[in-house]
């Protein structure tokens, strides 16, 4: 893979930054697939609905945020918990090869799929060689 997409997030799987809501923020696990047409990011974000995802592209940095609504009953405290609820956030620095107007995103079964198509001028093209 070339350096078309660069991760700008911390390498820790989860962190507790200072937030106004007091919720945890997780770095979603991400698969990156590159083709000649562009790059596809697949981020694991269980519990996040499409309307709770924000994608912001600013100065070539794509920031992805997902908001989770708590499912734990309000008046109950767990005796033991293995699954921590929290929001998701991850950022990637994009090269100039991508067409920002054609970025597409969809969420299904807890996976956010972000398609980053290459700009037409950045796509590889075959050059014909003529015999002289």
What does this structure look like?
The protein has no helices and ten strands. β4 and β5 form a beta hairpin. About 7% of the residues have low confidence. It has 132 residues and is an all-beta fold. Helices cover 0% and strands 40% of the residues. Strands 1, 2, 3, 6, 7 and 8 form a six-stranded mixed sheet that branches. Strands 4-5-10-9 form a four-stranded antiparallel sheet, with no helix packed on it. It has a single domain, classed as Sandwich (Immunoglobulin-like).
What can be said about this structure in brief?
The protein has 132 residues and is mostly beta strands. It has strands at 5-7, 14-15, 24-26, 30-34, 38-44, 53-58, 61-66, 86-94, 104-108, 111-117.
Enumerate the spans where pLDDT stays under 50 for 5 or more consecutive residues.
8-16
Q: Tell me the overall shape.
A: elongated
Please bin the fraction of helical residues. Answer: under 10%
Instruction: Please state the second-level CATH architecture.
Output: Sandwich
What Rg do the Cα atoms give? 19 Å
Question: Distance N terminus to C terminus?
Answer: 37 Å
